[in-house]
Design goal:
InterPro entries: KH_dom-like_a/b, RbfA, RbfA_dom_sf, Ribosome-bd_factorA_CS. Its main location: cytoplasm. Belongs to the RbfA family. The protein is of the alpha+beta class. It folds into 2 domains: 2-94, GMP Synthetase, Chain A, domain 3 (2-Layer Sandwich); 96-125. It has 4 helices and 3 strands, in the order H-E-E-H-H-E-H. It has helices at 2-23, 57-69, 71-81, 97-123; strands spanning 32-40, 46-54, 89-94. Strands 1-2-3 form a 3-stranded mixed sheet. The longest helix is centred in the last third of the chain and has 27 residues, at 97-123. It starts with a helix and ends with a helix.
Length: 125
């Protein structure tokens, strides 16, 4: 039961925090940020918000620093928007899975291109 509740709260937090980042947090250091997932502890006391940032690693670091500085604001806004007895502590974490996926796609594309080139070479002889 607690696991299900943490999962539901995670989805709600993901939606609310995504909307907040888009519409309310006006820090120029925050680039194009996407909330990829939210993990809520079983006791509902802590939430890890995973974000990906479009841009280079410096933009990612700047955005993450700015988001963690705004965590108190985010937490207080969550408290106003969602009826909870205790609003979880929020920590923003960098999610590199999108970059990893893009890297894998690039490698697969290279392998496919090499295979096509090799097939063209063998048919030409």
């Amino acid at each position: 039961m607690a696991k299900h509740r943490a999962s539901r709260l995670g989805e709600t937090l993901k939606e609310e925090i995504s909307q907040m980042i888009r519409e309310e947090i006006k820090d120029p250091r925050i680039g194009f940020v996407t909330v990829t997932s939210v993990e809520v502890a079983a006791d509902l006391g802590h939430a890890k918000v995973f974000v990906s940032v479009l841009g280079d690693s410096q933009q990612g670091k700047d955005s993450l620093t700015a988001l963690n500085r705004a965590a108190g604001f985010v937490r207080s806004e969550i408290g106003k928007r969602i009826r909870l007895r205790h609003v979880p502590e929020i920590v923003f974490k960098y999610d590199s899975s999108i970059e990893y996926g893009a890297h894998i796609a690039e490698l697969l594309h290279e392998v496919h291109t090499e295979k096509v080139d090799n097939e063209d070479d063998s048919h030409g002889e």
